[in-house]
TrEMBL record:
Name used for this protein in its record: Dihydroorotate dehydrogenase (quinone)
MF-aspect GO terms: dihydroorotate dehydrogenase (quinone) activity
Gene designation per UniProt: pyrD
Organism encoding this protein: Dyadobacter psychrotolerans
Cofactor note: Binds 1 FMN per subunit.
CDD domains: DHOD_2_like
Catalytic activity: (S)-dihydroorotate + a quinone = orotate + a quinol
Length: 343
């Protein structure tokens, strides 16, 4: 029903406004007695084969919601009812920031894709931490952290450490985001020297805690083979938990959407089905080249259960969805889970 009735109506309106509208509707509906239970009965699929142990954490199923949907941790309880095994909030920055100018989120319906240049819009890490302290569900939550737009790269470590400290007691794992194309200069932190320093210091602070939390690195799909080799080396050397592959791409290759429309949209990260094969290639390379030395969370272009299975076959321990969730609707996580049983 969603794909053929609800989505065509929603897609008539501005993508970002629709996002907030849908979140508000879900938030209000969740306050109605029995609605949470109804949603769970419709969208949650449980099976012993789905339970996964990754990086010392026990996931009820391997299908998560990627960062970007619930930036400020305002919807964790509601999203838990839609069948996810884990939810990633953020990207969060130390200080609140409005993000880039609107419009900044665009649908490419022919490609089942999105282009966004949101720019880490969020209410600040303290607000999200406060929300998480009052959540009711026990679903695993990851904290995706970044730096403020006006923080120079040579001071970026301070921003990541602030977010790390503020979220430590309220999230189950961390994701270091140095791969968004929408914060100027951010991807320069993926280079070997600054990334080694950043992850090394974060892991040092992590080990000082009584019970350290898994730290994952989220990488771009646009990295070269030699850069991926560096990533493998850095992850091993730093001792962080693993990698999330991949973020959005700056490539516009192979799109069905007209070149003129793409030009009119302008800059931003592309997500959705055009990314599916490249993301899987990166996952496979990391797993094979490292000898499965660390877990990889696979994300990028998953809108069908078969695409999630491909990422698992490539070596992904867990998968995440976002754009596919927008196009396919709230039943996608449970459909993927059903397909994964026995595979």
């Amino acid at each position: 029903m969603y794909k053929y009735l609800v989505a065509p109506i929603l897609f008539l309106f501005d993508a970002e406004r629709v996002h907030y509208f849908v979140c508000e509707v879900l938030h209000i509906a969740f306050k109605i007695p029995l609605v949470p239970q109804l949603l769970r009965s419709m969208y949650t699929y449980e099976h012993p084969d789905l339970v996964q142990e990754v990086a010392g954490l026990r996931f009820r199923n391997p299908v998560g919601l990627a960062a970007g949907f619930d930036k400020n941790a305002e919807m964790v309880d509601e999203l838990e009812a839609l069948g996810f095994g884990f939810i990633e909030i953020g990207t969060l920055t130390p200080r609140a920031q409005p993000g880039n100018d609107k419009p900044r989120l665009f649908r490419l319906k022919e490609d089942k894709a999105l282009i966004n240049r949101m720019g880490f819009n969020n209410k600040g890490v303290e607000v999200a931490a406060a929300k998480l302290r009052h959540r009711k569900s026990k679903i695993l939550v990851g904290g995706n952290i970044g730096k403020n737009k006006d923080t120079p790269n040579d001071q970026a470590l301070s921003d990541y450490l602030i977010c790390f400290q503020e979220l430590f007691d309220v999230v189950d794992y961390f994701v270091v985001n140095v791969s968004s194309p929408n914060t100027p200069g951010l991807r320069e932190l993926q280079e070997k020297e600054p990334l080694t320093a950043l992850l090394g210091e974060l892991q040092k602070r992590n080990k000082e805690k009584f019970t350290p939390k898994p730290i994952f690195l989220k990488i771009a799909p646009d990295l070269t083979t030699s850069q991926l080799d560096d990533i493998i080396e850095i992850v091993k050397a730093s001792g962080i938990a693993g990698v999330i592959a991949t973020n959005t791409t700056i490539s516009r290759d192979g799109l069905k959407t007209s070149a003129s429309e793409i030009a009119n949209i302008g800059a931003g990260g592309l997500s959705g089905e055009p990314l599916v094969h490249r993301a899987t290639e990166v996952i496979r390379y990391l797993c094979e080249k490292s000898g499965n030395a660390f877990p990889v969370i696979g994300v990028g272009g998953i809108s069908l259960p078969s695409q999630a299975l491909e990422k698992r076959k490539a070596g992904a321990s867990l998968v995440q969805i976002y754009t596919g969730f927008i196009y396919e609707g709230p039943g996608l996580a449970s459909r993927i889970c059903k397909a994964m049983v026995g595979h």
